[in-house]
Amino acid sequence: MGQLISGPVTFKDTKVWQNSQFSVAASSMQGWRVRMEDAYACFLNLPTSDSLSPPTAYFAVFDGHGGTKISEYAATNLHTKIMAEPAYAKGDLVGAMRSGVLRLDAEMQVKFTGHLSHSNTKRSPFDLPDVEVEGRSLFPSSGGGVDVGGSTCIALLLRGNHAYCANCGDSRAVLSRQGVAEALSVDHKPTMTSEWSRIVAAGGWVAANRVNGNLALSRALGDFVYKRNSTLSAEEQIVSAEPDVTQCELKVTETDEFIVLGCDGIWDVMTNQEVISFVRSRLANGRPLDLICEELMMHCLAPNCNPNGLGCDNMTVVIICFLNGGTYDDLKQRCSRLCPAGPAVDVLSP
């Protein structure tokens, strides 16, 4: 657990956006941590010079650790990397998100450590082309051990009736399907069989449920001290930046109501269903979306520094509500429908 302070910082950096398709709010709170290391990015419609390109929304949360360099750089630049991928222009958003995340990580390693110490990806010496920052070499014989921290990445593209979710780490995306929580991502933890196997094969180990006894997640942007094996690809390193990318068909005219993106400061305290029920019950009561974000974080905030650290982390949440050409009041009515999972527990009601 990171360093804590004597009392929580409860100031909230909250923003809202809305168009005919979405109502969105995002909020971050430092909490009990010494500094705020999270970052997020929201675009209701990604900018493009191609007038024929279909409208695409982008939302992402980055939970930094060991500093803010990686989370802040990723929040500023990931969407441009995804859009620059040849796969993006071809409509292959799954491929674009995967290669865009890997490209960004390679670029950050060059930028922040001076070189790229692994052999890029499984696909070619660089199927992710031309990563160079300030003229520094991509292929030194060794190195890459500068510790600049790291970050999770949970990124969401919405195009037409599909959601594309790229996950690297243990932040999450969860869809409300008529009040039932449906996970769009799976946490990357070192205790997972596939993750453990990669870690050990790359020369690492798992102790106390952590990579090399230190890192609680097994995939991340940054964390370049775990990416120094020059004989392995980016995907094969002790800690990998390879995202799992999922595609989900949305039913916004039928059952789908909203998606919640959040860091583990939220999900360590509440289950997926608890978060969905918390948000949905407040939407059904017409609560403003920005206040729902803030109330969710305050609900997760620990009243004191407890030994297990739950509720003491930085917190960031993004809620994307589907308007589908309707109004916020229409959304209120949709969220008032009976939930097949049953009523929310009392503690989650407004």
UniProtKB/TrEMBL annotation:
The lineage of its organism: Eukaryota, Metazoa, Spiralia, Lophotrochozoa, Platyhelminthes. Keywords: Hydrolase, Manganese, Metal-binding, Protein phosphatase. Signal peptide: none annotated. Coiled coil: none annotated. Residues 23-322 form the PPM-type phosphatase domain. One of its GO terms (molecular function) is metal ion binding. This is protein-serine/threonine phosphatase. Its EC number is 3.1.3.16.
